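One chain is below:
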Amino acid sequence: MSIIESFINQYGLPALLLLVLLEYACFPVSSELVLPLAGLFGCRMRVPFAILVLLSTAAGLTGTFLVYLVGRLGGSPLLERAMNRFPSLEKPILASYRIFGNHGGIAVFLSRLVPLCRTYIGFVAGAVKQPLMSYLLCSAVGILFWNTLLTGIGYYFYQYRRVFFQAFVQYRKWIFFGGVLILFFLVLRSISRKSETGREESERPRQSR
């Protein structure tokens, strides 16, 4: 986190756009971290929000085009080799194949809203040879939606940070109480699931007999 912040502080808007490009090109950079930071720093640099969203969308399109190109040139054999060598890629790539099989070209847009498939769908779209213009159009709509949402969180949080912190100080007791209730509910739910799993496992030998 501190490395990313110092990188952005040193190089400004080009650093933000480079990070967005790398995230959409499947580098290990989280959009849930980078895009709100882009909004926060964009607001601090006084970049208009619409310009920030359009630039980040263009950077995302560039990154995802590179992913599409790799999938197009390498095809399914390349993805199979990647999954064999890096097992962690198997789940997002297979999920992307599943979404693409169920929804066709529109899957590129839908997958932009699914964390596991957001970036890896480019490999699959390239491997199945989706037309480039169709891919870029669906990607542009999905990336624009996602970037607007996440950069907006950082942008407007920074802009209205005083109001936010005043509300937090005023209602911190209720926020803490609500957090404790949610935590208590999650613990009970976890215990209930474990007990159900244990009951099912204990009943299996009886059924097999």
Notes: The radius of gyration is 22 Å.
